[in-house]
Amino acid sequence: MAQSLSYSGSPFSNTSFSQSPSAVAGRLGLAPMEGVIDADTRALLSEDGALDWCVTEFVRVVDAKLPPRVFLRHCPELATAAAFGPVTPSSTPVTLQLLGSDPEALAANAEQAIAQGATRLDLNFGCPAKTVNRHDGGASLLRTPIRVHAVVAAVADVGHRAGVTVNAKLRLGFDDKQLALACAQAAEAGGADELVVHARTRRESYRPPAHWEWIARIRAAVSVPVVANGDIWSLEDYWKARTLSGCRDVMLGRGMLADPWLARRIRHWQFSGGERLLATPWSARSDMLCRYAEAKRLAGMPDKVIVSLLKQWLNIMRGRDPEAASRFMALRRETALLPFLMGLSASEPGSSSARPVSRAI
Ligand SMILES: Cc1cc2nc3c(=O)[nH]c(=O)nc-3n(C[C@H](O)[C@H](O)[C@H](O)COP(=O)(O)O)c2cc1C
What we know:
Elements: E1 12-13, E2 28-30, H1 39-46, E3 53-60, H2 68-74, E4 94-99, H3 103-115, E5 120-125, H4 130-134, H5 145-161, E6 165-173, H6 180-190, E7 194-201, H7 212-221, E8 226-229, H8 235-245, E9 249-252, H9 254-258, H10 262-271, E10 276-277, H11 282-298, H12 303-318, H13 322-331, H14 337-345
Parallel strand pairs: 2-3, 2-9, 3-4, 4-5, 5-6, 6-7, 7-8, 8-9
Antiparallel strand pairs: 1-10
Bound molecules: flavin mononucleotide.
């Protein structure tokens, strides 16, 4: 469980939902997002203690046992892992995700990850990328439940002998939902301790809506805990996803990038008995983007790459926040880091009167 929450200085209003939040506290996870959620993002998004766990980007396994540096690259938190496993600087546990289709190779790499300190493993059955699916990884396994079973069983065998949790992250299917329950049951029979369900098929990609009601059908078909995922952008979405899926626990993906206070917003509502935080101010969003840039600069990343990562994050924010949308429009052609950061922190989009950009830049 993550450390205690701090909401100091956060504005709130007392508009509440009709349901009683006090009866419903559940866990909040941060979704794995390749190319977006790395150790720096995990550190920033988990720093207020509102998240219960994070998941790494997937480590892709083909047929070989990967060297330790590959695991460290995906999960630098392993370098300082204690007996209870890797954690972010705010002590939020980090689960290491593997992607592949060869049970033996996955088991060998699970062993390697465990030897390096991983205590929680996750298996990716959801990646829609053509290159990954062509090589029979990610969502493509959802066409054959027996293969989902074989992959989970191989990794669970290794994991459980070492006292390590093994979870599976599934979509509702590849082209359609016909095998949704069969795949979930196959993962459970293989020994998965918990299932995370992104409530769309691979064909549905990331298009709304997420079919949270399908997660309820999966829950009814298995006895392991199920975590709901997909399209939770707001407190209202959170509550609706929980109500329709019946899940206690949810995983937040793009919603946490769009609103870095989303987990804290949900927690505040629950712990205060229905009080709601006001909208996340632009200053908090831009501060997070600038601190992300600062971490990347300190790690030696070239400025141009940092700018493109910032644009990627801002692009997710802009769909949900008008201020982010106007900053994105003003900065979309900017490729130099300093002007980009000045533009993020300027009092007006396109203005040159910026607040100090950051401590290190
Ligand atoms: C850019 C991007 C990268 C992703 N990478 C991964 C990944 O490495 N592993 C995985 O299991 N899911 C991955 N996903 C899927 C997310 O974990 C999540 O299931 C999906 O985005 C739906 O949740 P959301 O609507 O809250 O974002 C990725 C999604 C996006 C948008």
